[in-house]
Each structure stands twice: as C-alpha cells, then as structure tokens.
Specification:
Elements lengths: L4 E4 L3 H10 L3 E4 L5 H6 L7 E4 L8 E3 L5 E4 L4 H6 L1 H6 L1 H8 L4 H6 L2 H5 L6 H4 L41 H7 L3 E5 L5 E5 H4 L18 E7 L6 E7 L10 E7 L5 E6 L19 H8 L12 H17 L1
Parallel strand pairs: 1-3, 2-3
Antiparallel strand pairs: 4-5, 5-8, 6-7, 6-8, 9-10, 10-11
Helix pairs in contact: 5-9, 11-12
The structure holds flavin-adenine dinucleotide and iron/sulfur cluster.
C-alpha cells in the first residue's frame, strides 16, 4: 500500500470541498472495498477523507411517507430496520443476501452503491483492463468471462456491477441525494446513477468529482409481494451470477430488476408490461439486446428460470 494523508471531515459540504481541493483525494466510509483496492494498488489515493463523523447515519421518514436513508447507515442496520422490513422487503432481503454479517456491519449505504466491479482481471494488475488503466485493453474479452455482463456491455468492458442492494433500490425507484463541492445539492434517480461502460468504463457513475452522497430516498411503499433471489456459486459470501428483485402486485402487475447481468442494475420498465405473460416474455424484453460471451450465455436461461421461480413464489 502506498502512503497517503488522512483527515476526518466534519460536514458534508467541507468533505465535498476538500475532495476537489486536494489532488487525488477519495472519501472513505466503511472501507470494506476501498482498502482492499488500495492494498492491491488498484486505487492509489493520495488523500483520504473519512466521512464517518458526518451525521448521516439516520433513517428518517419523509413528508410523503417514504424513507430517507443516510449515506452512512450500515447495511446491517438498514436490513433490520422495522420500517424497511415492513414496507421495502425486497431491500431488506437483498442486503441480507450480500457479503457476510461482519462486512454488513461496516458497509455503508453510499459505499455499497459505489463499490467497484469484481471482474477478476480488474484485480490482476499484470493484465490489461480499461477500467483500471484506460486504453490498456480488456483481458476479459476473449478471456474467461463466466461472471461477466450479458447486456449493456461494450467493446471496452464487459464487467458487472456487484451490489445486491442497488438492484433492490432500482426496483424501488430510489433517489440518491448529493452535495457538490460548491455546496449545491442535487437528486439523482438511481436509474441514472450508474453508467454503462461505453468507451470509458473507468467512469462508473454520474457523480461529478468531489460529489458526496448524503442520503438515498425511497418513495412511499408500494406494497405487493417483494422478493430478492440471488443465484451464486456458494450459498453465502459470493457475488451474484444472476439476481432478481421483484415486486408483484395482486393484479399481476409489478416491477423487476436484475443483478449480475450488466454494468448497472438492469431494469427496463417497458418489459414489466409482459409480467402477466410470465418470465419468458419479460426476460425476452430485458435481454433483447443481449450479447453474451461463449462462457456466460447460461445467464440468459438462468435469469428466466430465476424469475419464473420468484413469480411462482410471489403468486402463491
Ligand atoms: C469478501 C467480500 C464479499 C462481498 N460480498 C458482497 C455481496 O455479495 N453483495 C454485495 O452487494 N456486496 C458485497 N461486498 C461488497 C460490500 O458490500 C462493499 O464493500 C461495501 O458495501 C462498501 O461499503 P463501504 O462503506 O465499506 O465503502 P468504502 O470501501 O468505504 O467505499 C467504497 C467507495 O465508495 C466511495 N464512497 C463511500 N462513501 C461515499 C459517499 N458518501 N459519497 C461518495 N462516495 C463515497 C469511496 O470513495 C469508495 O470509492 C463484499 C465485499 C467483500 C470484501
Ligand atoms: S471487463 Fe472491464 S473491468 Fe474487466 S478487464 Fe475488461 S475492462 Fe477491466
């Protein structure tokens, strides 16, 4: 690990301002992703801004009946919150499907959204990776790509986004609230937070330099039967090969978002019109532009079968 300087921020505005005032600075929250990347010299910040003292660890009800989740709320606390379990079961289940108890005790809401891909070539600094070193190439294309994206990928990068929580938040139409270095704030619908790789996979989100996530807002609960099913190589402590977040209403309508298949949580609202016709029709729309590799074509039928199981369970 390379040496770096460190400060503890005392207000969100100061943290955001410091992040652009000092070259190559990064925020650190739980550190469960960033520290691993620093040890491997994949991330080499010169300065860390610790945001843990910011008073962003509360879950509050909003005026319109939703919830505002502070950026520093730990994954464990969010999953266990009575209001989340009652009104947003898909979120609680997705959180509990992620990582391990110890990691969830440290991992924060913002850090989880901004965790980086688990592409094995991204972690191997001996191999080319456009995300780690722009312009160097992509070792996954033509390499072993069993875990990689089947849709929304590009000629520059076929990585997936690893978060379970983000998939549930996408189904729930969450909104990310931020403060920028000039002190202005903005709301970013979660659909617009994560980017597809295109020809610049190193740019992963719509956040501007120094922009700090302060909270995530969930709209009023929409009811329905909510489920999150994750298919992975081991029963725990493994990332999704495919995951399904679904909210199914008594009249058969609903919402579906997929994890493990793209560079961002994958939801196409128009596909949800097909729900009464079943999982095959929905996944046909979700994967209309899919370009699987030789190794990961199994994800297409796997997603369909997983959604079939989720819908059967929800309707029962
Ligand atoms: C062994 C292992 C298994 C795991 N399995 C899973 C899994 O199955 N599913 C899953 O979803 N996740 C899994 N994870 C990932 C884990 O959930 C993330 O590491 C964690 O959520 C990151 O949160 P953090 O607070 O520790 O982030 P940090 O490591 O502190 O930060 C991550 C990134 O977010 C940025 N950041 C942090 N806070 C803010 C903020 N407020 N505003 C702007 N930027 C910010 C940091 O600068 C950094 O770039 C696993 C991790 C490990 C190590
Ligand atoms: S898929 Fe993306 S993250 Fe993986 S090696 Fe290629 S460019 Fe890097």
């Amino acid at each position: 690990m390379r040496s770096f300087s460190y400060e503890r921020a005392t207000s969100p505005g100061d943290a955001a301002a410091a992040a652009v005032g000092i070259a190559n600075a990064k925020f650190i929250a739980g550190g469960t992703n960033l520290l691993d990347l620093m040890k491997l010299e994949i991330e080499t910040p010169a300065h860390l801004i610790d945001v843990n003292d910011l008073a962003l660890d509360r879950i509050d009800e909003t005026a319109d009946g939703g919830l505002r989740i502070g950026a520093l709320v730990r994954n464990t606390d969010l999953a266990a919150d009575r209001r989340v379990r009652r009104g947003y079961g898909v979120l609680s289940r997705a959180l509990l499907a992620g990582a391990s108890g110890q990691l969830r005790n440290k991992a924060t809401t913002a850090g989880n959204l901004l965790q980086r891909t688990r592409c094995p070539y991204f972690y191997d600094t001996n191999l080319p990776c456009n995300k780690r070193t722009p312009g160097s190439g992509c070792a996954a294309i033509g390499g072993f790509s069993r875990q990689h994206a089947v849709v929304g990928a590009s000629d520059a990068c076929i990585a997936t986004h690893p978060s379970d929580m983000a998939v549930a938040m996408r189904a729930l139409d969450a909104v990310v609230e931020t403060v920028r270095p000039d002190g202005t704030t903005r709301n970013i619908p979660i659909a617009e937070l994560h980017r597809l790789p295109d020809d610049s996979p190193e740019i992963e989100t719509a956040l501007q330099p120094g922009e700090l996530i302060t909270s995530v807002t969930l709209p009023k609960p929409i009811g329905g039967t909510q489920a999150y099913r994750k298919v992975r190589d081991r029963a725990s402590y493994a990332f999704a090969l495919v995951s399904v977040a679904a909210i199914v209403q008594p009249d058969g309508s609903g919402r579906v978002a997929l994890g493990g298949v793209a560079h961002k949580p994958w939801r196409i609202e128009a596909a949800e019109a097909e729900l009464p016709d079943g999982a095959k029709a929905v996944t046909a729309r979700l994967f209309a532009d899919a370009k699987p590799t030789r190794d990961n074509a199994y994800k297409l039928p796997l997603a369909e079968r997983t959604l079939t199981a989720v819908l059967r369970e929800a309707r029962a």
